[in-house]
Design a protein that fits this description.
single chain, about 100 residues, mainly alpha
């Protein structure tokens, strides 16, 4: 058998899913806060976050269709939400900058 006898598979799956959440949050939450605090997205590019959202969104969809594992869905859902917030900040700050230029 290729399965490890040290840690049961459900425990491994649970731990791996919840390890991903703090890793994603540790990178996105400070980024979201910095964008909000600065009032602009600076040198960031929207395409990077669009690809990240597409990746986590497709992963979320795959998990929903294949296994409906609530732990994995929550994990990828949080990542998708955080990537979506950054993308919304791009839209928001680009619109507000356009309005300032038109005044």
């Amino acid at each position: 058998s290729t399965q490890s006898t040290w840690v049961p598979l459900p425990v491994t799956t649970f731990l791996m899913s919840f390890v991903q959440i703090p890793i994603a949050a540790s990178s996105r939450v400070p980024q979201i806060w910095a964008i909000y605090k600065n009032g602009n997205t600076g040198q960031l590019t929207a395409i990077t976050f669009l690809m990240a959202l597409a990746g986590t969104g497709s992963r979320l969809f795959t998990v929903m269709v294949d296994s409906a594992d609530p732990t994995l869905m929550f994990s990828f859902g949080v990542s998708s939400l955080l990537n979506g917030i950054v993308l919304l900040q791009f839209v928001w700050y680009s619109l507000t900058q356009r309005k300032k230029k038109n005044l």
